[in-house]
Each structure stands twice: as C-alpha cells, then as structure tokens.
Write a structure and sequence with these properties.
There is one protein chain. The chain has 252 residues and is of the alpha/beta class. It has one domain. Helix content is 53%, strand content 16%. It contains 13 helices and eight strands. The strands form two sheets. The chain has a six-stranded parallel beta sheet with strand order 4-3-8-7-5-6, with helices on both faces.
Length: 252
C-alpha cells in the first residue's frame, strides 16, 4: 500500500513508476479494480474549489503527481512525493508493460482519429499488443445517457484490462468515478493528452524543460489560446495556497 501526501487537501500518491506497474499487475491478477487520476496543478486547484472533484481524487486508488510544481510543493511542505508520474510518462511505459504481460487496452476519448493513430503506432512498436477497442465520443461537457451507454457497451464487449480515458481533467476523472463499477475492466486511467503525444501527433517538451518545471511553457507556446487561462490565471493561485498550508502546519 503506497503512502499519500496532502497537497491542499488532496491526497496525492507517493509512488514510483516501477512500483505502480507492479501494483497494476497485482490488481489485474487478483481480479480487482483500480482508478487512476493524474493531477497537475490545475486539477488540484479544481478539486480545492469543488467538493465533488476533491472527493473523487481522495477516493481514487491512485492520484498521481503530474507537475513539477506539485513535486516542489510536497518538498516545501516537508512530505516529499516519491516521483512525478505524468500521463506522458505513464502511457509509453504501459505499452511495453501490457505487451510483455499479455494485458489488453481500450482507448477512449481524444479527437476523432487520434485513438486510431495511437493504436497504429503502438502496434507498430509492440507487435502483438492487444488493443481491444478505440472509441472517440462526440464532445460534450456531460454525455447524454444514450452516448454513455454506447461507451459502456463497447468497453464491456471488449473486456480490456485497462481503459485509458482521454477527456481532459477533471472530466475524465468524474466519468471514471461514475462508471467504473459498470465497466468490465480492471483499471481505468484518466490519461489526459497523452494519446496525441504518444502517437507522435504532438511533440513533448525537451527533457531539460521537463525536469526544470518548464514543460508548461512549452505547452503554452504550442497551444497559447487553450493554455493561457490554465497557466496565467489559475496556476498563480497555487503558490499562496501552499504557503498558507505550510503556515497552518507550523502554527497548528
């Protein structure tokens, strides 16, 4: 059982990627279920303001640290998280892991055609990899019941070990929390925008930017209109809130 670290009331998993994959294997082999949320700063801030999202993150099996600022905050608070695990790290690690262990995958979400591109790329890299389904639902803030039934039906027919959900956070995490008990799968992961990057449709920031907390800047230059609010309006709130949490811990 891994430990969790309190970041603004969100219990973030302190776990390494190899340990996480080993625990995935145990979950599948024991016929259990697990939910995985991947939480950058904007997700933690969303949860801080929304009790429903906060409850989902705190009740997920794994709530992973996505974002160097979250990692830095954990160290500043005196409870360092073991490792940053982004969707862009997890998905490329899952493909060989599933290939080696004969586990199957279902790709749900992203823009039309992206899942199929990822499937083609993954099967090219790992011949014999079992990708049991791909489906991109029409964009909606909340799916109509008929559409939701289609998604559940396709997954249950495919019976994958993993369902990777790319619907942006926290929407993907809410969907998993509401539907995991209906799904014939073992592990559901809110994977974010990792489909496009792993498929080779969008490039990832250089490694030096990743390790120095500058991946956000690279993403902003790639998608300025979409990322402006996240990085320049929402994210600056994170630092004073972490300072306040630190002060409360000192003077409690």
């Amino acid at each position: 059982m891994h430990t969790k670290v309190n970041i603004l009331g969100i219990q973030v998993s302190s776990i390494t990627l190899p340990t996480l994959l080993n625990e995935f294997k145990d979950t599948i082999q024991s016929n259990s279920k697990a939910s995985v949320c991947i939480t950058p700063v904007n997700s933690i801030l969303a949860a801080n303001k929304n009790a429903v999202v906060k409850n989902i993150y705190n009740n997920a099996t794994y709530t992973l640290c996505d974002g160097v600022p979250v990692l830095w905050a954990s160290k500043f608070l005196g409870t360092p998280i073991a490792e940053r695990i982004t969707g862009l790290d997890l998905l490329p690690a899952l493909l060989p892991f599933c290939s080696e262990n004969n586990f199957s995958l279902f790709f749900l979400g992203a823009s039309p055609g992206v899942g199929l591109s990822l499937k083609a790329k993954a099967e090219e890299l790992y011949p014999g990899l079992q990708i049991s389904g791909v489906y991109s639902p029409p964009f909606a803030d909340k799916f109509e019941q008929a559409e939701n039934d289609i998604m559940i039906g396709l997954i249950n027919e495919a019976k994958p070990d993993f369902v990777l959900v790319s619907l942006t956070a926290p929407k993907q995490d809410i969907w998993i929390a509401e539907n995991l008990h209906k799904l014939n799968t073992k592990i559901a992961i809110g994977i974010g925008g990792a489909f496009e990057v792993t498929a080779g449709l969008i490039s990832r920031a250089p490694h030096w930017m990743q390790v120095n907390g500058l991946e956000w800047l690279y993403r902003f230059f790639k998608e300025p209109k979409r990322m402006f609010k996240r990085y320049f309006i929402e994210a600056p709130v994170f630092i004073p809130l972490i300072l306040l949490q630190k002060l409360k811990s000192i003077f409690k």
